[in-house]
């Protein structure tokens, strides 16, 4: 395994960590996989190389920020989706740093990218009088 390329680390992360070690649900596994399906072509294009030749050192916080901007502006993703993608990238960076001490500084730099802040929307499931309305049954008791 070439420890300087992103591809083998992605494979190890998805197979050894996401499925093997953490045993995440199939939805989480697919979410992490989909993040890489979006991120790797984006990173390879920005680095002017193919995905299988993408070096880890080319993936920098500036590229991660550009990726989140791409998700927001081109793909019209909301803050929750962007943060979900960021969580997967940060977990991957942590995995690489844990398993490859020579990439520890790279991992630390990737983890410095902040999550996107957003104001939560109103909670529509509560009525004007709070919980009392949710406690009412649709069919009144007789």
Which structural traits does this protein have?
DNA polymerase, domain 1; mainly alpha; 142 residues; single chain
Mean pLDDT: 88
CATH class: Mainly Alpha
How far apart lie the N and C ends?
A: 70 Å
Principal-axes shape call: globular
| Radius of gyration, CA atoms, in whole angstroms | 20 Å
Q: Secondary-structure element sequence? A: HHHHHH
What is CATH's topology name? DNA polymerase, domain 1
Estimate nothing, just give the exact number of structural domains. Answer: 1
Q: CATH architecture, please?
A: Orthogonal Bundle
Query: Spans with pLDDT under 50 lasting ≥5 residues?
Result: none
> What is the count of helical runs?
6
Would you tell me the structural class of the helices and strands? mainly alpha
How do you describe this structure in short?
With 142 residues, the chain is mainly α.
């Amino acid at each position: 395994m070439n420890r300087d390329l992103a591809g083998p680390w992605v494979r190890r992360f998805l197979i050894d960590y996401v499925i093997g070690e953490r045993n995440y649900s199939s939805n989480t596994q697919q979410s992490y996989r989909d993040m890489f399906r979006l991120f790797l072509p984006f990173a390879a294009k920005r680095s002017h190389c193919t995905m299988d030749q993408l070096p880890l050192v080319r993936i920098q916080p500036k590229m991660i920020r550009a990726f989140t901007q791409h998700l927001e502006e081109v793909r019209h993703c909301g803050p929750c989706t962007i943060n979900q993608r960021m969580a997967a990238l940060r977990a991957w960076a942590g995995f690489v740093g844990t398993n490859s001490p020579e990439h520890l500084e790279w991992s630390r730099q990737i983890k410095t990218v902040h999550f996107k802040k957003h104001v939560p929307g109103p909670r529509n499931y509560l009525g004007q009088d709070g919980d009392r309305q949710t406690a009412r049954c649709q069919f009144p008791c007789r």
